Amino acid sequence: MREVSPARVVSLVPSLTEAVAATLPGALVGATDWCTHPAGLAVTRVGGTKNPDLARITVLAPDLVIANEEENRAPDLAALRAAGLNVLVTEVRTLPQAFPELDRVLTACGARTRPRWLDEAEAAWTALPVPETPATAVVPIWRRPWMVLGRDTFAGDVLAHLGIRNAYAGHPERYPRVPLPELCATAPDLVVLPDEPYRFTPDDGPESFPGLPCALVSGRHLTWYGPSLAEAPRVLAEALRAAVR
After folding, report:
1. pLDDT digits (tens, 9 = 90+) for 115-135
2. 132: containing domain
3. Helices in 133-218 by DSSP H: which ranges?
């Protein structure tokens, strides 16, 4: 058992908010407006991930602010540190990275043992068979302009573990802007359409890719690292299989 004091925590990352709330009920004193899980979380809202209310966070006087190097802006984190707050910044760009990083965050927040859901999530992904014949996919994450997953992303690695090879994994940019005609011209086996950060729907997603199989998937299961990781292999695999039947 780890000897750690409970902490008052502000979370600037939705998936970390879910992880802390599931593991240490009552530890969170603040979270962003985008922190939607768990439903009904009663904490002070501190703005967005890209535009947090720094004054409100400072007034809360948390023991720890948890953030992510990709999701949050460096100047905001520097300002919080300058105000005397302790800021823990995660880096999660691959699926295997998620498990030790979550353990590190939860320990810093006061967890005395590794939560069961984290063990279950790691076991669920470890038990997956190695894909025999990967399918190639494009993964739009925005439109107007069209943007896709590129190199070195957590979501891209999640899909790779499910046998989906990102057509733009070798692109020099992590989230390149690619015109729709070019996306269609790659002739992927599959188009993966998450419902966040852009909420692709059956109406505005598949119609953009006529003749191509499209999988509408849960963005929470594709891009979040937290308790949702335990069910993500099943949820995502079912959506992917349904698209290529």
Report:
1. 999 999 999 999 988 777 789
2. 126-244
3. 154-161, 180-185
